[in-house]
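From the methods appendix. Each design record in this collection lists the tokenized structure first, followed by the designed amino acid sequence. Records were kept in a plain field format so they could be parsed without special tools. The example shown here is representative of the layout used throughout.

RECORD:
FOLD TOKENS (330 positions):
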């Protein structure tokens, strides 16, 4: 239940605003000039707000498509991301959004058509390069699909550009619009996974790993390409046993030919972000584990990162080709 919805005056009559408001008939509606007056307010507490976030409907003015951070990619030479939304309905303890934004309120930018224009511009400027777009870097790309309809909106655009890849990265078990349309070869349905034991204490409000594997299996059977994202890798007692179980389970649950790529990523935070997140959850065991500080990045020791990545890679190579495995550092 969303108690209050703030609506920028500029988009109050936008058809998508009306479409979204129709789903929240009991919410209190308040008009505002700019989303930033609510979202960027000082002295907000992300943790308190996260218990009961409000929704902000806004117009995005710029920065529709941005270059992906260095070290983020699955084989293309050019990588870009876009976010139709800020923040997430889930509450993963390691989520970088809680250190990036001061507000836990959800912002949905309703002017999807401006994303379309920017995506096309980027494609035209990089016509000779292999491009991957990542949807939803500042949110979960599909968790609120039944409210926003963003994937449903953007898929037809990518149908026009079969040589350009788009990845929807999610922890949701959202099946639509994907189960109702024909699979597209340039779409990667990417799922973030970690062993059940870790997920049940860190992936708050997120569908269980077994539910995620079921959806992966259903989408793969329908013909969609799957990305497996073991990111972040979480260190702990019995991590080898737990990751081995998880990887074996996944590789034995879905048709291997449906797997587009597998990536692993370390648990890493810029120092300032780590400080802010630590302040929110000072008793969280994840943040008091064997983390080290090097070059202003808080992460596991390089030796641990390396050992975990190599372990997952070796297990993966029992099933897949080396060219399908990636290490991400962003
Ligand atoms: S699903 Fe992703 S975006 Fe959402 S809370 Fe978890 S880590 Fe953050």
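DESIGN:
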């Amino acid at each position: 239940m969303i108690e209050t919805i703030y609506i920028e005056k500029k988009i109050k009559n936008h058809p998508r605003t009306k479409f979204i408001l129709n789903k929240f008939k009991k919410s209190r509606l308040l008009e505002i000039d700019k989303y930033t007056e609510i979202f960027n307010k000082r002295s907000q507490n992300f943790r308190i707000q996260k218990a009961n976030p409000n929704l902000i409907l806004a117009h995005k003015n710029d920065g529709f498509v941005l270059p992906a951070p260095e070290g983020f990619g699955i084989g293309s030479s050019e990588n870009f991301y876009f976010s139709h939304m800020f923040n997430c309905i889930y509450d993963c303890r390691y989520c970088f959004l809680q250190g990036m934004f001061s507000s836990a309120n959800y912002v949905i930018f309703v002017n999807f058509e401006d994303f379309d224009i920017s995506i096309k511009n980027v494609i035209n400027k990089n016509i000779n390069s292999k491009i991957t777009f990542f949807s939803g870097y500042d949110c979960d790309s599909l968790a609120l699909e039944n409210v926003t309809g963003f994937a449903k909106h953007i898929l037809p655009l990518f149908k026009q550009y079969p040589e350009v890849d788009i990845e929807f990265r999610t922890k949701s078990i959202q099946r639509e619009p994907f189960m109702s349309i024909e699979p597209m070869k340039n779409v990667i349905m990417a799922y973030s996974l970690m062993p059940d034991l870790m997920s049940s204490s860190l992936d708050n409000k997120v569908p269980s790993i077994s539910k995620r594997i079921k959806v992966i299996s259903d989408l793969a059977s329908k013909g969609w390409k799957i990305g497996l994202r073991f990111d972040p890798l979480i260190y702990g007692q019995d991590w080898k046993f737990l990751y081995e179980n998880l990887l074996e389970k996944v590789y034995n649950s879905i048709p291997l030919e449906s797997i587009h790529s597998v990536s692993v990523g370390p648990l890493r935070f810029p120092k300032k972000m780590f400080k802010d997140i630590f302040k929110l959850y000072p008793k969280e065991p994840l943040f008091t584990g064997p983390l080290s500080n090097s070059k202003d990045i808080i992460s596991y020791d390089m030796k641990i990162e390396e050992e975990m990545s190599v372990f997952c890679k070796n297990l993966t190579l029992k099933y897949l080709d080396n060219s399908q495995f990636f290490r991400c550092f962003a």
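APPENDIX NOTE: Residues 4-232+250-265 form a domain with the pyruvate-formate lyase- activating enzyme fold (CATH 3.80.30).
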